[in-house]
Amino acid sequence: MANNTKNTQSNLDGALFALSLDRGAEASLQAQLCTALRDLLLSQGDFAGTRLPASRKLAQELSVSRMTVTAAYEQLQSEGYLLTRMGGGTYVAQDLPHLAPPAPRADRMPSQDRRQPWLPLSHGVADQNLFPHGQWARHLERAWRSPDAALLARPDPFGWYPLRAAIAEHLRLWRGLDCGPEQILITSGAREAFEIVFRGLLGGMGRSVMEDPGWSPMAGVLAASGSEVLPHRVDAAGLDACALPLDLSAAIVTPSRHYPTGRAMPLPRRIALLDWARSTGALIIEDDYDSEFRYQGQPLPALAGLDGLTQVLYLGSFSKLLSHTLRLGYLVLPVAHIAAARAYVNAVGPRASLIPQPALAGFMASGEFAIHLRRMRRVYGKRQKVLLDALMELDDLLELAPDPSGMHLCLPLRRKAAHALSDQEMVARAKAHGVVSKALSSYAVLPDPPQGLILGYAGFDEPLLRQAAKELIAALRPRL
Amino acid sequence: MANNTKNTQSNLDGALFALSLDRGAEASLQAQLCTALRDLLLSQGDFAGTRLPASRKLAQELSVSRMTVTAAYEQLQSEGYLLTRMGGGTYVAQDLPHLAPPAPRADRMPSQDRRQPWLPLSHGVADQNLFPHGQWARHLERAWRSPDAALLARPDPFGWYPLRAAIAEHLRLWRGLDCGPEQILITSGAREAFEIVFRGLLGGMGRSVMEDPGWSPMAGVLAASGSEVLPHRVDAAGLDACALPLDLSAAIVTPSRHYPTGRAMPLPRRIALLDWARSTGALIIEDDYDSEFRYQGQPLPALAGLDGLTQVLYLGSFSKLLSHTLRLGYLVLPVAHIAAARAYVNAVGPRASLIPQPALAGFMASGEFAIHLRRMRRVYGKRQKVLLDALMELDDLLELAPDPSGMHLCLPLRRKAAHALSDQEMVARAKAHGVVSKALSSYAVLPDPPQGLILGYAGFDEPLLRQAAKELIAALRPRL
Lengths: 480, 480
Description:
The structure is a homodimer of 480-residue chains.
Chain A: H1 2-17, H2 29-43, H3 55-62, H4 66-79, E1 82-84, E2 90-92, H5 133-145, H6 149-152, H7 161-175, E3 184-187, H8 190-201, E4 207-212, H9 218-224, E5 228-233, E6 250-253, H10 267-280, E7 283-287, H11 303-307, E8 312-317, E9 329-332, H12 335-348, H13 356-365, H14 368-390, E10 408-412, H15 415-420, H16 423-432, E11 438-439, E12 452-456, H17 462-476
Parallel strand pairs in A: 4-5, 4-6, 6-7, 7-8
Antiparallel strand pairs in A: 1-2, 3-9, 8-9, 10-12, 11-12
């Protein structure tokens, strides 16, 4: 039996080492490896229980990065073909998916529709493994087992009131923003929030500015709402109100952490921006997406707090703080705009699902949410440091400065490095090594944009960050 | 003690019978009664445990409809002021909300933000009391306790695959529609589905037609997507393709159950409509919202099935079948349109929450969904009959014909009745009696619309339906 297993293992090793992957093919090396491995296991059923070669070994044999192999193993593991055992090692599962009873099971999805895991160093991804799934599931169960009569009554399109109350409390404690639950509108995300502001409050007319670099899909989102949006170049201190036209209907800003550079807007600029808005009557839309994760220093409170919520609308989201699965965000409205927003959402109807709302309200009211945020702040802070340390070798190419907050680093290219290789070329090279990054210049519309690499660290554990850093160094170093 | 209770009770009765409600006030009689009762209980704390007068008695004393009183009692019950005891009777709660510890509890909402229950005979409301909340909560808990890795991976903007597979199976069995999970796109509701079709597939251009009468907010929804939508008068057999222009980009139809009249489009009209679409290249958008609830006869399969899903896109929703709290719908796409829809949703991102999706997939795959639908079909069928029987007295005003399917009745006004009173006047009178109805003519844009009363029966139990019918008779009868 042991002998038999060993034979099977050398057969499997042999078959795997003999694979040939096509570097010119449209499918990625990882996808090709997945398909080949899947076909191999399905065509020959006798590998059940066999140990797979170590990822390092297989990567060597196939001349691919180790990450390509580990990602393929993970993919097949999530599909049920492979499993890992305590003490290490990846094995072929005993019951391969196709050996399951042939009844049409709705929970078995064809592999081509299986979702890819987030690849390092994707940004904007919360760590899902450290999320307290058990607590969250209990809140869901508790909220819906015998639901509050008000949950089943005619819904308030502003969302579930206790959640709005919990968000108001969160904003007071974490963001220095004093508002009432009646000012909070629950949305299915930033897109809906922008639609409500631009169609509901601004009537789908007028011109606005957004930061450049900035959240690039914004212009398309707003164009769909009938608004023209002008990109406005930011400097190291963010948007400069002195340079803004006087006939705008709104300015969209990320003062707590400029997206994607992570820089905070200093107080004088904030005051200038509020002065501009007050004198021109324009609205300011403050998009605050991950500044709860603050590692050093005292945060400036939200711009909306400084303004006392008169000219500033505040946008928040739970996708980055907790999980993208929620699809819940919120919009904090100045009192003067509540009626118009209510008229608009009454007409178009609510879109955010009610299902997660009472559970999230319970999760927040119980204090588990704050405990989770504080825990993730420690974890993410450590991860940022690990990534920066692991990238030390690239110090001559990238400015490796820590960021006092957030979930990703935006590392500017050093001038001499940028001459040799653009940020977009760097991103392409990293991709070939299995590392997902973003070029700062790809967030800009205006010419001659700043160059930098955007690396997400929040969603990945320390060994994976170190491995990704190694791949990134291998990708950027040999040619320079 | 017993004596004391009795004294308190007669005090409460006295105080209540002495209330004066203002018929000219902007607030409804029900809201006034709620406020008065709440103030009474809060200002005098010694009513705890006291039995309230019977709704019939209080209604008599205050000269309001009994429904006004029962609705007010229900409202205060949902707020925690009142409770009902086994064996009947409504009592003042022992711990009134304001007597709770004064800690800022996020799950306690101010009464002005409490949601109103659905009033009879609101239409489009599923019965929430008969929903298997326990099963549903267990599916939620099971799905998220230790979630499938794919749920936490990069999301497919088309939605959770096992749910799409379960919907495909449901459509095959219940609607005679043969499609694959890859053709199904999960949305946050019909608005998002229309946005995807009109912006993503039609590029926000062109003219379309919708039925008149029809779902009146449609024109606004589509105008926001850049499309012009022309109302087109339907006759008893629905939209007549022979009368359609040849230069349209789409026609939106409800062939299984015309909205809101409930009439089914006969086969010859369906074939003519498909011929028109094939010869002009226009899309047909089939909006199928509640035809799973079929009480008599053999249903025609979905138009999309007759078409083989080439020119027809099919829209479904769970809001009416299950619960409005889900905010989940879906769009079934012809294979040729999948790529364009995918490009669009990839760009704009998914909006339907993932949280309910795996739970709903489990609920459907386990068979509990089908059991629930069959149960509700029996219940709703009986309710329709109860409402029709209870309205028999209005036979000279309304055509009291049963509807073979659906969740509401659309009762046409008899010609001689319509001369005396329009459907909108009837609706206004019914409202004064606490009955919510809709005028068929209010669903029309074109002049000289048909007249009828739309009465929802699905969401209300039989005693409530009989009571509502009585109020409706009282509202319509005295003046004729």
